[in-house]
Amino acid sequence: MPGTPSPSPEGSVAQFLGPCAPARLFPPVPPIPDWARLEPNRPRPRPRPWRAAGGNSSALSWRGGSAPSWAAPPVRIAQAPPPGGHVAQQQDGGVRSVTEEPPRAPRVPRPARAMVTEQEVEAIGRTLLDAAQPLPARFRALFTLRNLGGRAAVEWIGRAFGDGSALLKHELAFCLGQMQDEAAIPVLISVLEDTAQEPMVRHEAGEALGAIGNPDVLDILKRYSQDPVVEVAETCQLAVRRLEWLQNNKEKPSTTPYLSVDPAPPAEETDVAKLREILLDESQELFDRYRAMFALRNVGGQAAVLALAEGLRCGSALFRHEIGYVLGQLQDEACVPQLTAALRSRAESPMVRHECAEALGSIARPSCLQALRAFASDEERVVRESCQVALDMYEYENGAQFQYADGLCKLQASS
Ligand SMILES: [Fe+2]
Ligand SMILES: [Fe+2]
């Protein structure tokens, strides 16, 4: 099947055990199942990773699709080295070990463990900060840092907020939120407070503060719930509701197939028609509509995808951009026309067009390509850059690359 690499067993083993191992936080493309060889036209499940989350919680999330069982749990970052494991010295003096567990593929051996040095983290951080690098390479460096986690990674990510790319900066904030490392709180607050930062960046900083889950930021979030920039205000309102929900519900939001840290817990309702009704009802509170959104995502299936896609025509740019994000997670081709229409609409908010572009890159079907290529030179910088990054995602999804977050792998291969 074109675009579905099938590395040799030896190749897989070498990649798992080689120096690239610690950065291999995304699983390899699984072997082609027999049914796919026999029925090449049958749609194949595409639980492809894009954004991984977890950081110090050591879990990965999958922006594009649910975490496949053969990859769970992909990474463990332990405080003490496992027997026979390698350890990494962190900048704060702590020692941690990086352990990967193998995918389900039977030919893959025991978890790989390898060393990540301060110098390597620094080199990846420098790639992230280097404006001369192509944006997709800087994105990959960012996700490598996010997957590595730890104080040094948080610091390197925090240093990039002076960049000229709103797209990159909003992704920095997203990653810091997904890492759920409280060390990131000060920089996120400063970004939220900085009105010179683009609304999309401040929005993501507010959302990240909610994602980290520390109630100490409640007062700040309440203050910015009244921000004149509506995307920032709505984000902070949601983050306040999330933190209050966490306080009132001793347990964290239930585990979902998508291990991302979402701005609202999924609704308990699972009926698609009822969830759709709440989702599209603009008289409902935004938090409840978000809860319906994440419940629909978790239920999945084409009816849920199409209900979500209807949300691209609802009020609130923030709401529509989150719909785009969720559709990117779902990776269902059924919503390509709606995503493409939103990307093409110059009347649409750039934040929404950006998220729709990335969703198309995550879905990564040929039907996504034309619009991504057409808008890779859009006059709106954030749209243009999103399409460029999305095309890189498309290439990753359809190619033989071992992992998306390949910063460490590239670094070690070049040394
Ligand atoms: Fe966002
Ligand atoms: Fe985004």
Automatic annotation (TrEMBL):
Cofactor dependency: Fe(2+)
Binding, Fe cation 1: 170-171, 203-204
Keyword flag Oxidoreductase: yes
Residues annotated to bind Fe cation 2: 321-322, 354-355
Pathway in which the depicted protein is active: Protein modification; eIF5A hypusination
Claim: Lipoprotein is one of the keywords in the record: no
Entry-linked InterPro entries: ARM-like, ARM-type_fold, Deoxyhypusine_hydroxylase, PBS_lyase_HEAT
Catalytic activity as recorded in UniProt: [eIF5A protein]-deoxyhypusine + AH2 + O2 = [eIF5A protein]-hypusine + A + H2O
GO molecular function: deoxyhypusine monooxygenase activity; metal ion binding
Transmembrane segment boundaries: none
Region (Disordered): 1-109
Note accompanying the cofactor annotation: Binds 2 Fe(2+) ions per subunit.
EC primary class: oxidoreductase
Pfam families per record: HEAT_2 (PF13646)
SUPFAM superfamilies (alphabetical): ARM repeat
Keywords of the record: Hypusine biosynthesis, Iron, Metal-binding, Monooxygenase, Oxidoreductase, Repeat
Listed EC numbers: 1.14.99.29
Family indicated by similarity: Belongs to the deoxyhypusine hydroxylase family.
General function of this protein: Catalyzes the hydroxylation of the N(6)-(4-aminobutyl)-L-lysine intermediate to form hypusine, an essential post-translational modification only found in mature eIF-5A factor. Catalyzes the hydroxylation of the N(6)-(4-aminobutyl)-L-lysine intermediate produced by deoxyhypusine synthase/DHPS on a critical lysine of the eukaryotic translation initiation factor 5A/eIF-5A. This is the second step of the post-translational modification of that lysine into an unusual amino acid residue named hypusine. Hypusination is unique to mature eIF-5A factor and is essential for its function.
Stated name of the protein: Deoxyhypusine hydroxylase
Organism listed in the record: Corvus moneduloides
